[in-house]
Amino acid sequence: MTIAARAIKFGDDINTDYIISGKHKFKSNDMVAMAVHAMEDVDPHYYEKAKPEGAFLVAGSNFGMGSSREQAPLVLIHSNTKAVLAKSFARIFYRNAINTGLPVVECDTDLIDDGDELTLDLEGGVLVDVTKGITIPFPPLPPVMAQLLADGGLVEHFKKHGGFALD
Amino acid sequence: MGPIPGKTIAEKIFSAHSGTDAHAGDIVVADVDFVMGQDGTSPLAIKALERMGVTQVFDPKKVAVVMDHSSPSPIEGVSALHTQMREFGKRTGVKVYDVGCGVCHQLIPENGHVVPGDLMVGCDSHTCTYGALNVFSTGVGSTDGAAAMAAGKLWFKVPETMKVTYTGELAPGVFSKDLVLFLAGQIGADGATYKALEIGGPVIDALSVDARMTISNMAIEVGAKAGLMKADAKTLEWFEGRGERVPAPVEGDADASYCCELVYDAGAVGPQVAKPHSVDNVSPIEEVAGTPIAQGYLGTCTNGRLEDFAVAAGILKGRKVHSDVRFIIAPASKQILLDAIAAGYIQTLVEAGAVLVTPGCGPCVGTHNGVPSDGENVISTANRNFKGRMGNGNAFIYLGSPATVAASVIEGAITDPRKYFGEGR
Ligand code: SF4
After folding, report:
1. Which of A116, B266, B358, B404 has a CB 3.0–4.6 Å from the CB of B166, allowing a cystine?
2. Does B139 have pLDDT greater than 50?
3. CATH number of the domain encompassing residue B54
4. From the centroid of its chain, how far is CA B165?
5. In this structure, is residue B400 part of a structural domain?
6. Could you tell me if A29 lies within 8 Å of chain B, comparing CB atoms?
7. Per the domain annotation, does B220 fall within a domain?
8. From CA A111, how far away is CA A105, in angstroms rounded?
9. B158-207, pLDDT tens digit by residue?
């Protein structure tokens, strides 16, 4: 499946407090309501920009550093973020993204500018910056994670297999 | 056949818990000895369990949920989440630590839920704290936590290990917090991403268990999966009377392979301060001394332990908190509160002008108990100073040791605590 959307670009070290601030995440379990606050401390208009047509969140290194809050990938999903593209990811965020079904791609994001039109075929391993007319290579997900994402996340994996069934 | 190469602490713990010969880079499905969630993460884990169709946890004695991040509840939304956690406890028999018990990372080891040699996961990034107790403990998200609660196991990538050794001796007025802030300044917020740390050397050996936990607590601030230390006589003594589980300490082999080794002379490290808005934005205190502050905070899973209260009380005894400063204190657990009362520290601190709040996370994560105002500077013993962390994106958070915080609240400005130690005292 190929996803097309525009890039919204950020810098390095975007932490989970920026993705969703603690003051919001502790209020409830309502991710739809919380999604309007996604990224607001670094871009107050993120939700308005991403929600209508979807967006790729493009960042530098160490995206998702900080807390274990799964609200982080969830609010991104609910703000219509199609995937996160970054030079590198913090460990817990990376796992949480896969577990909740948010695609994450590690690639050279210096090649992408804010507003660029991108297409991503995750299974096929093809990322294209349509605005620039370039294909950006990225390494495939580790097999365990590819399997979890293909199952639709960890909950669906559990439901399907009745527990862990990882090769 | 050549000699069998040695293993790191991480490789040994993952081997023992997965029944495989685990090496860095391997993916293993391993048994966990304990699973924990807090009030920001447990509700999502409970929801994930429901979606999985799971009604019971693998072993109620090996799971606990803790109300610490917003507790007692400041708003009705949180009250509803707390209710879900209490009902989950009733339904499954897992241990519920209700409001006022303390911060999860103090309660889990304090109550003997983990022992050296264990593998445990917690739905909170600072679960790495128990590395100081020779437990491979790491933070996971709510869905991973739910899977672990359901199955008693989880998949892991066995991490490479980075060895960090502190040589020399700490100078008076310099503490374990300064050592870990110094490390963050040296290697950066992603300096150990995906890796385990093995932290040791004569300086670590000389530290109390409380002080060691401060360092392991902040392993995540350099991206590490765990911040492991060996268990020595002090560690084993610390566990005495904390439950029936028998410690099985694990030490790294002399010929284990490490991805890199860092050696720092602790004697050359003075008090350190992390400046806004990142934990690796670290300076020696001389560079920030004099910065005015409006609020000080002593507490959290990093520095809310008895020793931290002893240090702060030692400095504030007979002195006063500056009239322009709010000084908030929160012991990391009810037990620490009781011990600090018995030792007279609470009396000293409150007399000096401190405001005591409920054992728990306090104002650390911006949910309640002391949200700073626009433009204000805060000096805190916590582990994170991200923009907005304490509930206001227009405030500025500095991190330091309990001694630095205590010295600073007296003067109303960031202050080198060394004048209260050693000869200058
Ligand atoms: S004290 Fe702060 S860092 Fe520790 S668990 Fe609570 S919110 Fe997290």
Report:
1. B266
2. yes
3. 3.30.499.10
4. 20
5. yes
6. yes
7. no
8. 14
9. 999 999 999 999 999 999 999 999 999 999 999 999 999 999 999 999 99
Q: Can you give the C-alpha Rg of chain B in angstroms?
A: 21
Q: For residue B408, give the amino acid letter.
A: S
pLDDT band at B128 (very low <50, low <70, confident <90, very high): very high
Torsion of CA B332, B334, B336, B338, to 10 degrees: 150
pTM of the model as a whole: 0.95
Spatial separation of the C-alpha atoms in residues B283 and B269, rounded to whole Å? 11
Give the Cβ contact number of residue A143 at 10 Å: 11
Give the three-class secondary structure for B134: coil
Q: Is residue B241 a part of any domain in this protein?
A: no
Nearest to B68 by CA among B51, B81, B55, B53: B81
**What is the spatial distance between Cα B250 and Cα B363, in angstroms, rounded to a whole number?**
36
**Separation CA A42–CA B413 (nearest Å):** 28
Structure tokens at B376: 């204000």
* B332/B173 Cα distance (integer angstroms): 22
Strand partners, B63: B35
Phi/psi at B332 (5° precision): -70, -15
Instruction: Write the DSSP string, B49-88.
Output: HHHHT--S-S-GGGEEEE--TT-S-SSHHHHHHHHHHHHH
Q: Write out the H or E segment, with its range, that includes residue A110.
A: none
Q: Is B126 in the pocket of ligand 1 (CB under 6 A)?
A: yes
Chain-centre distance of CA B17, in angstroms?
A: 24
Choosing among B190, B374, B396, which should be mutated to test the A contact, i.e. which has the most A CBs within 10 A? Answer: B190
Report all structural domains of chain A as residue ranges with CATH numbers, in order of start: 2-161 (3.20.19.10)
Of the residues A18, A19, A23, the best mutation for testing chain B's interface (the one with the most B CB atoms within 10 Å of its CB) is A23
| Cα gap B345→B402, rounded to integer Å | 13
Specify if B80 maps to a domain: yes
Chain segment A50-64, per-residue pLDDT in tens: 999 999 999 999 999
Partners of B330 in the β-ladder = B299
Cα B366 to ligand 1 centroid, rounded to whole Å = 10
Percent of chain A with pLDDT over 70: 99
Question: Which range of residues forms the domain containing residue B81?
Answer: 12-158
Taking an 8 Å cut-off on Cβ atoms, the answer to whether A158 and B150 are in contact is yes
Of the three residues B158, B191, B218, the one that is the final residue of a domain is B158
Pick from B361, B369, B389, B390 the residue to mutate for probing ligand 1's pocket: most ligand atoms within 8 Å of its CB: B361
CA A7 vs CA A36, A71, A104, B36, B91: distances in Å: 18, 22, 14, 37, 45
Taking Cα atoms as reference points, which of B122, B78, B119, B159 lies closest to residue A67? B122
Token reading at B300:
């959290």
